[in-house]
Amino acid sequence: MKKVEAIIRPFKLEDVKLALVNAGIVGMTVSEVRGFGRQKGQVERYRGSEFTVEFLQKLKIEVVVSDDKVDAVLKAIADAAKTGEIGDGKVFISPIQSVVRIRTGEIDEEAL
């Protein structure tokens, strides 16, 4: 099992969600996060004054999938979140040791 974490632009959430559903994913966790990378923030104006926003708003999507679905999930997220501009985000893949569904007690693959 693998955990796929994607940092994406907020307006791409619906596109990514549809792509994941079409890839057979039935659940995900979405969190609002802030950060910066190569984009290094952006300059904004408020009442005539310019200021730099160093930490940009992004969304983090977390999905745990079986090993055989990782490539499909990665492709679905990357294709749906891509704009071609700096700041599109990143995808991280980590191993998951075990999963337990609290309601039923199912373990690992059955719990997904």
Description:
By secondary structure, the chain is an alpha+beta fold. The chain has a single domain (2-111), classed as Alpha-Beta Plaits, CATH 3.30.70.120. 20% of the residues lie in helices and 36% in strands. It has two helices and six strands. The chain has helices at residues 13-22, 70-81, and strands spanning 2-8, 29-35, 42-46, 49-53, 56-65, 90-95. Strands 2-5-1-6 form a four-stranded antiparallel beta sheet, covered by helices on one side. Helix 1 (13-22) runs antiparallel to helix 2. The chain is elongated, with a radius of gyration of 17 Å. The N and C termini lie close together (9 Å). 17% of the residues are buried. The mean pLDDT is 90.
Please provide a brief summary of the model:
With 112 residues, the protein is α+β, with helices and mostly antiparallel strands. Helices cover 20% and strands 36% of the residues.
Number of strands: 6
Specify the biggest β-sheet. Answer: 4 strands, antiparallel
Q: Which class best fits the helix and strand makeup?
A: alpha+beta
Classify the fold: give the CATH topology: Alpha-Beta Plaits
Count of separate DSSP helical elements: 2
* Series of secondary-structure elements, N-terminal to C-terminal: EHEEEEHE
Shape: elongated
CATH architecture assignment name: 2-Layer Sandwich
User: Looking across the biggest beta sheet, what order are the strands in?
Assistant: 2-5-1-6
Give the low-pLDDT segments. Answer: none
N- and C-termini, Cα separation: 9 Å
Radius of gyration: 17 Å
How many domain units? 1
Q: What is the top-level CATH class?
A: Alpha Beta
What share of residues is helical?
Answer: 10-25%
Strand content: 35-45%
Calculate the mean pLDDT score and round it. Answer: 90
